[in-house]
User: Fold this.
Amino acid sequence: MSAYRYTEQSEPPAAKQVTDVAIERFEHVFEVDPKLMTAHVAQQVFPNWDTLRIVASRHDHLDWMHRHWADKVISGQQLLDELTE
Amino acid sequence: MTVAPELAEPVLEELRQVLGSEHVLTSKPARYNRARVPAPFPVHRWAERVPDLVVLPGSTAEVSEVVRIANANRIPIVPRDGGTGLTDGAVPVRRGIVVDVKRMNQIKEIDEVNRTCTVGAGISMLKLNEVLARYGLIYPDDPASYPCSLVGGRIGTSGWSLIGSRYGHSRDLVLSFDFVLPTGRVIHIGDGAGRKLSKSSSGYQLKHLFMGHQGTLGIATEATLKLFPKPEAELSPFFAFDNYDDAYRCVGELARAGVATFAGAVLFDEWKVNYLRRDDEAYIPQPTDVRALVCAVAYGYEDEVIAGGKRFMRIARDNGARYLGDEISEGDWAARHDRYATPLHGRTNAGQVVPMSWHCEDAAINYSNLPQVRLEWHEIIRKLREKFDMFDDWGMFTYTSANTGLDYLTEIDVGIWEQELDDASWAAWVDAKRDIAEVALRNGGSISACHGSCREGEVDLVPQELGGGYDVMLDVKRAIDPNNIMNPGKYGLDRAYESAEG
Ligand SMILES: Cc1cc2nc3c(=O)[nH]c(=O)nc-3n(C[C@H](O)[C@H](O)[C@H](O)COP(=O)(O)OP(=O)(O)OC[C@H]3O[C@@H](n4cnc5c(N)ncnc54)[C@H](O)[C@@H]3O)c2cc1C
Assistant:
């Protein structure tokens, strides 16, 4: 476990432009390009851990939803592979 | 106290006697929070929709007493459940009493032998299914509002379910219910003398009449529901296409294939894909030749789902589909209850992000009319957006309503910068809604497959859709609600009383 350092948490990793309207700071976590949020939507400092927590809890929620509806999820890829074999 | 004169102390006292004072709410937050539904509206007019009073009854007998008192004093009543309805059904337009049935959320019986359960109208399907899972059972009414809409509201709207192509929609799944008429009289609606038949042919079939009336005919208090075994397996492949026409052909073939576990198929058009490409983690990284999407869903026993799923895959492959992979397919389907409805932001014409609320216009359209409706609907929104930079076209999807692929819930999602709506932009939006409904009717469809059609704009065309049936609707309303106390001002039903006077 590493110590909590405010500066580490309040400075997000450098942004990579992924499309003309979206950036990526953490792997597979896309954000609206801040350039598009200058006129009507105020920006705020968001701790890194909180971004990652929200992403993780979203995954938890989706896993819960699968289990809520059925005991098992069938892989489409496997069905497709069997079709082409 | 800000209640209307009719709700003066003697009436309030009578209500408190029936319900206990803690269940008669007059505070500003209690009333203002029950003044609206999620569909955007001009918020500067919020005060026009606030009820005088909110009551929280705990039983059918209490609902009946409240309605009797209201009827005797000619006080409007508005039934309210989850408050997620999108056609303003639960919005009080004549003040009066909101009857919020959320306290009536008990599971009264689970009958494992006949596969039914009996519940209070205030229960959510999600909470019910958490309990039913312990019995290996499920109540498969699955609107996109699944976590927050409630059984009574499903009855009030005659709702549409995402997996209705396999299991049926609310009207198929609700077997029977106790119902409080506008006079306070309690009747039981459904087939047979008991509660648990799925088919009879005795007398008038009243169940359809007392579902989908948007609370204008009375209040459902307790319902008996049809249950199924909880599915062993789920499959939800998403496919990408480089053009709409191939995707349209593919969704049609998937829906018509006759696969027994088929629970639904959905088609996202180019506008929807463009919208997703702005904000949705699954689609931002997709190559630009992804222009339309199709998903097919199956539920059932594992071996059945696998057999049907192979057929889906073959059909999609033969139509030029590209499989989007397990992660996107599974994630997108699990996100069906929130992903497309609640992004809470959109774009101005210049591309700047603004806070926006989600509005969706829905219609029921036959497969063969989908392409035409889509073009006309987008054109209506394009013109609106040109004039008022507070509307954003979030694209369309069409979703099978039945397992033969004949008709589709067809929806255009529109982002609306609600705080900016003034009277002029609201009037333009109402006109657009009417135009959208007109396109649906001209194409042989219905103004609504799921939400109902009593909002400003579309409601004007309901007589055109129903024809002579609308006159019957007026006669029924007058006969059942002689004093027009039950959710007055909806569906143009005030006309029923004008003609009586005239
Ligand atoms: C994000 C989102 C997604 C949605 N997706 C779908 C969808 O996929 N399918 C679909 O069908 N709908 C959908 N809707 C619309 C809405 O959820 C449904 O119309 C739902 O059936 C309303 O249920 P409710 O409990 O919220 O009812 P409310 O909004 O409280 O009431 C709806 C209507 O029924 C009346 N009513 C309420 N309770 C009773 C009662 N006990 N007896 C008689 N009348 C009553 C009300 O007066 C009102 O006219 C969606 C809404 C949202 C916000």
Notes: The longest strand of chain B covers residues 357-366. Chain B touches chain A through 47 residues (CB under 8 Å).
